[in-house]
Design goal:
Its cofactor is Mg(2+); thiamine diphosphate. Helix content is about 35%, strand content about 15%. The protein has about 375 residues and is α/β, with parallel strands linked by helices. The strands form two sheets. Strands 2-1-3-4-6-5-10 form a seven-stranded mixed sheet, with helices on both faces. Strands 7-9-8-11-12 form a five-stranded mixed sheet, with helices on both faces. Strand 11, helix 11 and strand 12 form a beta-alpha-beta unit. Helix 4 runs parallel beside helix 6. The longest helix is centred in the N-terminal third of the chain and has 15 residues. The radius of gyration is 21 Å and the shape is globular.
Length: about 375
Amino acid sequence: MIHFCTVKGKGYAPAETSADKYHGVAKFDVGTGTQAKSSGGAPSYTSVFGAALADEAARDDRVVAITAAMPGGTGLDAMAERFPARVFDVGIAEQHGVTFAAGMAASGLRPFCAICSTFLQRAYDQVVHDVALQRLPVRCAIDRAGLVGADGATHAGAFDIGYLANLPGFTVMAAADEADLMHMVATAAAHDDGPIAFRYPRGAGRGVALPTRGVALPIGKGRVIREGEDVAVLSFGGHLAECLAAADAFGDEGISATVADARFAKPLDADLLMQLVTHHRALITVEQGAMGGFGAIVMHELARRRAFDKGLVLRTICLPDRFIEQASPAEMYADAGMSAGDIAATIKDALTARAEVVPLRQIL
C-alpha cells in the first residue's frame, strides 16, 4: 500500500497557510499573496445566505448546518461564529454530509446541507436513497448555481435543476436576487414536508434592498413582475434583471412583454404557466441550468396540457453543452447567451417564427 499525503498549495507559502483561499483567484500579488478586493457594492449571494441562516438559527435552535470543507465558501462561517456547536464540517465527504443531514432530519432537527452544485453531484446516491425516498426534510442550499467565473468550468452548477427536480417529494427553488434568497432561506427553514433545495449564483447580488428578515414563500407559486401582451418571458434564477432589460428594449418597437419569475421548478406553478400561454403568442424560458432542466419541466407540462395545440412558440435559453469546453470565464459567459441582448434577440425570433413546436435543443 502506498500512502500519499498531499499539502495544499505545495510550494507557495500563502496558499499552504490559507485554509480556504486560492481555489479560484482574482488578480493577486505573487510576492505577498494578497488578492485584489472588490470595490464594494452589493453583497455576495453567499454572504447573504450565511447571514440569513445565522438569523434563522438564532430564532430556532433546531436549525443546524453541514458543510463539506467549505465553511467560508458556502457562507456558513457566519453561523459558525455565533453557534459553533451547530455547524458541522465533514471534510471533503459530501456523501457523508448528506446522510448525516438525513439522520439529523429524522431526529427532529432542521438541517441545512450547504454544498456547491457541482459537489452535490458526488452525493447523488445519498440524496436519492437517504433523503428523497425517506421524504426527510433536508434543506439543500446549493451555492454556485450556473456559471462560476474564476472557479472554472468544472465548478459550474449546470445539472442540479434536472437531477433534483426528478426526485420524488423534492421542492426545488431558485433565487432571482439576494432578497429573494433571504425569503427562500426562511421558506426552507419552515418546510418540514419533505426535502427542499434552493439554488443561487456565485458572486455579487443585484444590489436590491434587503428585508429585515426573510418571509416564507407560498410553495409552488411564481410571480408576475411586469405585464404585457405579445410575448411572455419566464425566468428561473438569478437573471431576472436581464429579462426585464430585454423587455425594456422592445418598448420603442411596440412589442409588449410579460416578465414572470417562476421561483419554483418543482412544484411548477402550472396556473401561472397556463396564464402565460393563454394570453401570449410565444413563451421564452430562461435558466442557468443545462438542457433537461427547467425548460424541459415547462415543456413537459405544456405537452401534458396540450398547450401546443394553441400554436404556441416556445424558446428555451439555457447553458449549452459546449460551455464546459470554454477556456476562460469571459468565453463561458458569452457562450451561454444569457445577456439582455441575447434574450431580446430570442424574443424577436420567437415572434416572427411560424407557430410550431421548436425542438428543445435549439439554443442561442
